[in-house]
Amino acid sequence: MPSTVIRCESLAKFYGKNRGVEDLTFEVRPGQVYGFLGPNGAGKTTTIRCLLSMLRPTSGDAYLFDEKVGVDGRALRGRIGYVPGDVKLFERQTGRWILDYVAGLRGSRGPLEAEVCERLEFDPNRRVKELSKGNKQKLALVISLMHDPELLILDEPTSGLDPLNQQVVFDILEERVRDGATVFLSSHILSEVERVCERVAIIRQGRVVAEESVETLLSRAIRKVEATYAEDLPQAFLDSLAGLASVELVGTNGLRATVAEDIDGALRALLGRTVKDFTVEHASLEEVFLQYYGHGESGADREAGENDGDVAGSAAGEEGGAR
Fold this sequence. Notes:
- The chain is α/β, with parallel strands linked by helices.
- The chain has two domains: 6-217 and 299-317, Rossmann fold; 222-282, YebC, transcriptional regulation domain (Alpha-Beta Plaits, 2-Layer Sandwich), CATH 3.30.70.980.
- It contains twelve helices and 14 strands.
- A six-stranded mixed beta sheet has the order 6-7-8-3-9-10, with helices on both faces. Strands 2-1-4-5 form a four-stranded antiparallel beta sheet, covered by helices on one side. Strands 12-13-11-14 form a four-stranded antiparallel beta sheet, covered by helices on one side.
- Strand 9 (199-204) and strand 10 form a beta hairpin.
- The longest helix has 16 residues, at 163-178.
- The protein is elongated and about 75 Å long.
- Mean pLDDT is 85; it is low at 296-310 and 313-323.
């Protein structure tokens, strides 16, 4: 078994003078569900394309299954299932034609094709141009899953799906991971990342600015605290509270506060008077994300061509494609 499924070492990609990614270093170990977070333009899709040898890095190296990614990466890509962020398919063909076409490129039919079609309630007999966005997404998911790949690289995989089908996708991913697969999930839908990932990297302006387990990242994040006291609160008590990012008086005997760092010290201070009710709410991954991003990136920081992925087209162009 390889020590890493994905590894990037000082990876950089520039589009002329424009930055795609720079000094990107991280690794994904076997069996992990790894979240790769960032808004459009942060460098997520550029990273994926470098991993799949759709783009050649300006500098640095990328590895899949401990093998360096190069131009001739067909054998490596045969072990991968890929869903791009912007699905493009042969509009005049049927889903069945596309599945047959991809199976021909791979050299065999996928053992999970019929099962995934059934579970996603996808009818492959209709022409692509007649499909809704959600059904096109289902077709992309079938292509990526049907050959039971060792690694799933998924760029916004539930885009366009209703909640019931999103749940089906999560169920399938959990089953694949239990069977030994690894998942690299790029998304800006932070609730689904928090739900399925065990480790995340946050990418900003082409660089990884944080890499932690989801549990650790959330444990370091802000908490929202609300307390109701038995007596009215004097201003002196509010002024004495330490370790709080903000304190807001609610009525005469309650307060709402944000704890940024010293949760133990803050709780000791808050519980210094008789309490009638007390709640602590952990920040969501989205709030943690905003801590790192602040007001976000400017338009000048956005990378060129961030969201123009392709499923079957890339399969043809890469002699078997990002499978």
